[in-house]
Structure formats: C-alpha cells, structure tokens
Amino acid sequence: MRPNASIDPLNKGLGTFDHPLGANEIAQLDWNLLREDLSLPSAVLYQDKLHHNLNWMKEFISAYGVKLAPHGKTTMAPHLFHLQLEAGAWGITLATAHQTQVAYTHGVRRILMANQLVGKQNMTTIARLLRDPDFEFYCLVDSAAQVHQLGSFYSELGLRLNVLVELGVIDGRTGVRDNEQLQAVLSALPNWKQSIALCGVEIYEGVLADEQSIRVLLHRAVEVTRKLASEDHFQGAPILLSGAGSAWYDVVAEIFSAAGLGQPVDIILRPGCYLTHDVGAYREAQARIREHNPIAQQMTSGLLPALQVWAYVQSIPEPGRAIVAMGKRDVSFDSGLPVPAMHFRPGDSAPQVTPHHWLVTKLMDQHAFLQIHSGDNIRVGDMMGFDICHPCLTFDKWRALPILNADYQVTDIVHTFF
Questions:
Q1: Tens-place pLDDT, residues 288-302
Q2: Which of 142, 197, 264, 380 has its CA 20 to 30 Å from the CA of residue 11?
Q3: Phi, psi at residue 179, to the nearest 5°?
Q4: Integer distance in angstroms from the first to the last C-alpha of the chain?
Q5: Within 13 Å of residue 199, how many CA atoms lie on the same side as its CB?
Q6: Contacts for 212 with CB less than 8 Å, ≥ 6 apart
Q7: ∠ CA 21-25-28 to the nearest 5 degrees?
C-alpha cells in the first residue's frame, strides 16, 4: 500500500500551496529546488541515490543468505518503509508501540520491535494490532519480571505474544547479562505457554566499541541459540536470530550466516541508516566494510549520501565568516556538524561542489557559522546543500521531505510520523 498521507501547507521546507494535499498531488505542482520553489531550509532526498542504496543492501544481504528488517526509527516514513519492503525486506524493525502502530496503520504487516514492551497502554496498543490475524509481531524480553507482566496481560485477553530473548553485555543497554539471568527468563516462560511464545534470540552489538568484543557477543548469541534449540525452548519455526545496527552488519552477517545451527533459522539484520547513509560515523563504517568484507569488495560501489539539507547564505558579516540560515532545529549535530557539499547561485546552470576549506564550525537554533576565506565567491542569497551526520536526528526535525530527481525536480514527498 503506497501511503499518501495529507501534507499540511504549514510544514516547513516546502513550496506554496493553500490547503492540505496528498503527496502525489504535491508532486504535480512542478516544484524545482534550483528555481527556488521550496522555502529553505529544506531537507531533501535524492531519488537515484535512494534506489542505489536499496539495491546495494539487497545485493549484500542476498549474498549472505540472510534477511533484512531495516530499522524504521531512522526515518519514521511509511513511504520509505514500503520502498524497503518492495526491495525485498523481510519486515520492518521499530522501537516502540507507537512506532509499531504508525507502521501498521500504513500497511506494514510484519514488525520486529527490537525493544522491551512495557506498560499498560503500550501493551494495549499491541494487543489491538494482534487481533488482526495477518499481523506478525515480535518484541524482546530480558527478565522474568517482564515475562510475568506480559504473560498476565495477554493471558487475560486470550492473545499470544511472540518474543525473542535479548542478550546484553556488562555496561551495555538492555539484555540478559549472564547465564543466571537467562535461566530466570527461561524458567518464567513455561508459566505462560498460552500467551507468550519464545521465537528466537536477539542482540544489539552497537553498544560495543571494538570488533573483537562484538565478535565475542555474536558467537555467544549463536551458542545460546544452539543450546536453546537443542533443549526445545523455541515455539514454532523457523527460529529467529537477529542483530546488526548500521555500523557492524557485515560482521553480524558473516558470523550468523556461518552458524550452522542444524534447524530452520531466519537470520534478521536490522540496519536503518543504509537507505540515506551519511558522511559521519556511517561513512567511516562503510569504508571499513568496503576494505575488509569480501562481499562488499566485489560490489562496484558503496552506499551514497541520499539526504541533504539546503539553506540560504543570509549574511557575510566579516571576512572569513558566512552565516547560513540553518541550525539545530533543522539538522543533526550529535555526532558531527553538517558538511558543506553543494553551492548554487540562483540563475546559474547547476550547483557546484563547495571548496574543501568551507567548514561549519558552530550551530545555533536557526544559524550555521560557515568558515570561508576572504575573497571566496560566495554571496548573500546563495543556496547551499549540506551532507549530514546521523540521519535519525535529521529526519525527526522534518514532517515532510521532498524527493528530487537528477534535475532537482520534486517528484514525491515523504511524510514522517515522529
């Protein structure tokens, strides 16, 4: 189902229209970024790069024989969820009951909530969705207390909840730390056979900083899965074995695909940022993958940055400094400042790559401090496109993002639900 949620004209980063329109209607308004049809700042997506990244990850995943459930929290954009599903994704990963409801409402019917489900209203939200026989849902457990809460709640409703046991590490996030905690969870589960089904094992390796520690955790996950399978703890087939954020999915694919568990297993990888990529931590991770992973080495190219924020130069108040009308309200800054990429003067034929020495040194709420050289060819009213670091915290600043073709023409609008 292609989402076509109504876009309100009060959303920032769009052109002029008088009343709410569907995304397909907005695409017919003939907006073009370079004609200044959009009110800047505007976060935009590039159609060709999105499809490149979709195909790149599809090829990579297929080479390992594993499955993909991209993390939807990155974009919270149902239109992009459906692009990923149409490209072969097994399902969509999400983090909360609200996010799950958004995805379900927009037609997603298989969701792995890679988080613990806690609290009456959150459990009620999922219960409503579980009454749909076509909806397949999984969440995580890591304590006997949580198992008993879930079991009691869903038992009263006559519903059955699919869960994966999460393995964690000392000083990490959630997840059972040791065998004693694991056994407590396993001992609690038989009390709720009619309302909770253990379906697999999950880890999130991104809480660890070095590859060796990550490999230790992944091998532990394989061995725990092997042991639980041999002891018949899992209900239903295939068993699910899931891991992988956006930085170490190659190592997860390598180790999990070679596990040889001897039973039907679906290995589910959950990277979210591959679709738009970035020029920060994920570009560094991609460089490592391209250098060391044999599958990636055989592929003709890597992932491409598909998300930019465009803004105007609004002031050049002193030599060596320009102020750009873009700030913390518009772009992520938690893992790196935006990087100048494109420079365009209205009336020119095409954008140019920015000089290497142009650098964002500081962000305020609505302003970016751009370091330049005295005498550089830059004027008030020029337009600039910035690559970003950490897509998640750029997406959540926008409710509508135009998709552009190679001519900077708006071909579609992506609606987010944060």
A1: 999 999 999 999 889
A2: 380
A3: -65, -35
A4: 20
A5: 22
A6: none
A7: 140
Structural contact between residues 251 and 212, judged by C-beta atoms closer than 8 angstroms: no
Kindly state the DSSP code that residue 284 receives in the 8-state scheme: H
Q: Three-state DSSP class for 323?
A: strand
State the DSSP code for 176.
B
**Maximum pairwise Cα distance, the chain:** 75
Report how far residue 96's alpha carbon sits from residue 319's, in angstroms, rounded to the nearest whole number: 48
Q: Where are the alpha helices (DSSP H) in 13-113?
A: 23-26, 47-64, 78-86, 97-105
* Helical ranges in 131-201 per DSSP H: 144-157, 179-188
Structure tokens at 398: 């926008």
Cβ atoms < 10 Å from Cβ of 358: 18
Rounded to the nearest 10 degrees, the angle between the axes of helix 97-105 and helix 78-86 is 70
pLDDT above 70 as % of the chain: 99
CB atoms under 10 Å from CB of 242, counted, come to 27
- Whether 3 has a pLDDT exceeding 70, the answer reads no
Q: Give the pLDDT score at 23.
A: 82
Q: Count CA atoms within 13 Å of residue 291 on its CB side.
A: 6
Q: Which residue has the tokens 């570009």?
A: 283
What are phi and psi for residue 144, nearest 5 degrees? -65, -35
Residues 6 or more apart in contact with residue 284 via CB below 8 angstroms: none
Each residue's pLDDT tens digit, 372-398: 999 999 999 999 999 999 999 999 999
pLDDT digit string (tens) for 130-178?
999 999 999 999 999 999 999 999 999 999 999 999 999 999 999 999 9
